[in-house]
Sequence to fold (271 residues):
Amino acid sequence: MRPIPTNTDAPIRPRVLLIGHGALARWLIDTSEAQGGFDVVALLVRNCDVEEVQKARPAAQVVASVDALTVPVELAIEVAGAEAVTEHVSQLLARGVNTAIASTGALARAGVLDRLLQCAEQGKSTLKLLSGAVGGLDLLAVHRQAGLKRVVYTGRKPPLAWKGPHAPKRTDVESTIFEGTAREAAIAFPSNANVAATIALAGAGLDRTEVRLVSDPSIGQNLHVVEAESEVGSFRLEMSGRPLASNPSTSALTAFSALNLLSGLTQTLII
Fold:
């Protein structure tokens, strides 16, 4: 196998590897073709999907493992779920490929974050957490430096957005379906609590961030509220987000947070 280049000066059009070929990945590919600015040159998918995805994306190399990848890339972006983080990201980081992940809830699992950071140090690469559906992470990080006393995240979603064993039994009344730490939320709701994990990792940590998840039939969008207090002040930030048009269970803001990261690779002014 040809080595994947380590961190070098990015070309005018960065070469990107996408982990996954779901709604988010397809949106990014369509955007790259329509707007330019970056090239999706490789896709990392499940072994059973390689042949089908390769037919759909003949211009890209489609593989089922990092070892099979031969095209050079400057950045990898995971948009495939927590299992993809644990299966592939450590190898990419160890090979020197800067990697961004959307499924931040995977980092709540025992040993996963430490392993990824060790691999990033080994490969002299960086692990980036996509902001996804939530904002204000820079402000939260500033308060962390000043000494956070408390961080509380409340997530409200329509009843049909909650899946799995913790889904609400009744969809006609508001109900609190979880209260606990961000780590507990990310483990119990692997598809619904990435926001909680991202807030925790930017602020007080997975075990000191309080989380409340609510099923609310009165809303049509996902609502996120972050409240934080530190030695130098406090803030309360409320946000709402619409789903991606091609997939109602995926936040459109997550897609645009990935696009914003890619845009920053070629910009001379970054805010």
